[in-house]
Amino acid sequence: RPYILYYHVINKPYVWQYAKKLQKITGYDIVSLNYSLKEPIVRGVKTVYGASPEKFVGLFRYAQIICTTSFHGCVFSIIYHKPFFAGLPDNKDNTKDRSSRVISLLSILDLNERLISRESKIKRDLLFLDYNRTEQLLTEKRKDSINWLKMALEA
Fold first, then answer.
1. Which of 29, 30, 114, 137 is at a distance of 20 to 30 A from 7, taking alpha carbons?
2. How many helices (H) and strands (E) does the chain have?
């Protein structure tokens, strides 16, 4: 059965609310991937605690849509070519580095429209994501990285 994966490292209620709105539009279930037993259990939501690496990656691979506050959540969404939405921690959360990694990744891959905030409205055209441009940019970045490593090793 299709599902929206909700994965957060920093709890941001607006990201959860966004996932719930997506559920209403799509009719998909929500699977909540939690790292902490402190998270409340939500009726009607499948909650996964302490997932093995295989289970963790599989949840991203088979999700239809992903809502996350995690850099790694964004990365796995991109690897598996999934439509995703990323909520950023507030600077007051003392998580500036986490935010900057997400912002940098999405900027490099021209995916800034995937960032959501408290004010974000759901745009139906963002429920789908064509990864052709993203793959082109990733290929360029990989080539740049390999060339840099070759030059560094030859120096």
1. 137
2. 5, 6
Task: Look at residues 78, 58, 59 and name the one whose alpha carbon lies nearest to residue 3.
Answer: 59
Q: What is the per-residue pLDDT across 4-48, written as a single tens digit (0 to 9) for each? A: 999 988 888 899 999 999 999 999 999 999 765 555 566 677 878
Round to whole Å and give the CA distance between 88 and 119: 13
**pLDDT tens per residue, range 65-109:** 999 999 999 999 999 999 999 997 665 555 555 678 899 999 999
Reported pTM: 0.87
Contacts for 74 with CB less than 8 Å, ≥ 6 apart: 68, 84, 86, 102, 105, 106, 114
Q: Count of CB atoms within 10 A of residue 45's CB?
A: 17
Coil, helix or strand at residue 143: helix
CB-based burial label for 12 (10 Å; 0-12, 13-18, 19+): buried
